[in-house]
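REQUEST ID: PR-0412
SUBMITTED BY: lab tech R.K.
PRIORITY: routine
TASK: structure prediction, single protein chain
INPUT:
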Amino acid sequence: MRGSRLGNMVEPPDLVTRLEEFVASAGPEPFVEFEGRWWTAGEVAAVGRGVVRLLDEAGVPDNVAIGVVVRNHVESVAVLIGLVAACRPVTMIYSHQSAG
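STATUS: complete
OUTPUT:
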């Protein structure tokens, strides 16, 4: 799976490896606080895995960049973690980006 997403790379970058491990082993420990609520590592990883699963189920090819509208929300971080851990290309879309 990794080879098809990373082309000729023999080994994924260290960041990808770490995120893969995080997504695979995240549990009930507090991970990030947002607006007075602590999200567990497991919750964050589950959101990321869920997005990747939905993309796979929809038949979105592994080499197609996924646009993510970045907001100041935990879900934005979770989606980015899931996509990078799955070696999916990401295009960042900023909500306040000008049209011109």
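NOTES: The mean pLDDT is 84.
REVIEWED BY: pending
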